[in-house]
Amino acid sequence: MATATPAYERVKVFSAAIRIFHWLRALSIVILTASGFYISWPYLVGADTTDVLVQGWIRYAHLVCGFILCAVTLVRAYLYFFSKSDIERRSFQDVKNYRSWIIQLKSYFWIGGLEHKGVYGPLQYVTYLAVTLLAVFMCVTGLTLYANVYHQGMGGALWGAASWVTEAFGGLAWVRILHHYVTWAFIIFLVIHIYMAVWMGIRFKHNAVDAIVSGYDYHPKHTD
Ligand code: HEM
Question: What stretches pass through the bilayer (predicted)?
Fold first, then answer.
């Protein structure tokens, strides 16, 4: 009995390193957002309590995840430029091509298909670049806040750079306020990002959430 040929072919899009760092970054940002808002509004214990451990443990979690985010941001920048697969770098060709923008924007209104040179569409690429720059901003402001509390070890080593950043922002209060405000950008991004990833899977039957779990994407098979 003849077996039916599959209608889809499997294509490797994300390496194990890219998948691991994606989920590490996602987890650290979720914990940073929750712990960061707690640091600014410690609602679990009364104002006149002597129990300072809750705040201490939450700050500890924030700092551990903060340093994870700093490391992942650096490693991901390296992988973008130097990984063996150029599937991410290739996406930049679509950013420079106005036709790709029109194709992607039309696809959001259910008009036409989707063609990419790399793994991301142009709007997706620009959004991820903006989120990466915001992560760099959070790392710089976070490390500045850190160096102002811990004056020895790494905090001491960062003191010179942290003083420069503090002055450039017009004082430590502004560093803290902007570190707080930009947290909202991550919350807005997360909601849209999850919505779009699920929507892509439903609309195009590929480039969906499973690709960043398994590493594989599925494309309609060309029989010609
Ligand atoms: C997406 C990333 C991050 C988010 C969403 C985030 C969020 C926040 C928020 C909302 C606060 C409270 C600010 C306030 O007092 O109103 C905070 C404080 C702080 N964050 Fe972050 N943060 C992030 C990354 C980092 C990084 C990378 C570091 C550095 C390793 C860091 C270190 C700190 C420090 C030291 C404080 C002050 C803690 C205190 O006052 O006790 N943060 N963060």
Answer: 20-40, 60-81, 125-149, 181-202
pLDDT tens-digit readout, 39-73: 999 888 877 777 778 989 999 999 999 999 999 99
The residue whose CA has the least distance to atom 30 of ligand 1 is 66
**Does any domain span residue 1?**
no
pTM for the model stands at 0.91
Q: Which residue has the tokens 């987890």?
A: 27
Residue 211 lies in a domain: yes
CA distances from 71 to 61, 67, 126, 134, 157 (A): 15, 6, 22, 15, 17
Domain tally, the chain: 1
Domain with residue 135: its CATH number is 1.20.950.20
113-160 tens-digit pLDDT: 878 788 899 999 999 999 999 999 999 999 999 999 999 999 999 999
User: What is the distance between the alpha carbons of residues 224 and 222, in angstroms, rounded to a whole number?
Assistant: 6
- For ligand 1, which residues put their CB under 6 angstroms from it? 29, 32-33, 36-37, 39-40, 59, 62-63, 66-67, 69-70, 138-139, 142-143, 145-146, 176, 179-180, 183, 186
DSSP state of 11: E
Q: Is residue 6 part of a domain?
A: no
CB within 8 Å of 220: residues ≥ 6 apart? 7, 8, 9
181 in any annotated domain: yes
| 221, pLDDT greater than 80 | no
Q: How far is the CA of 95 from the centre of ligand 1 (A)?
A: 32
Distance from the CA of 142 to the center of ligand 1, in angstroms? 5
What is the tens place of the pLDDT at every residue in 161-199? 999 999 999 999 999 999 999 999 999 999 999 999 999
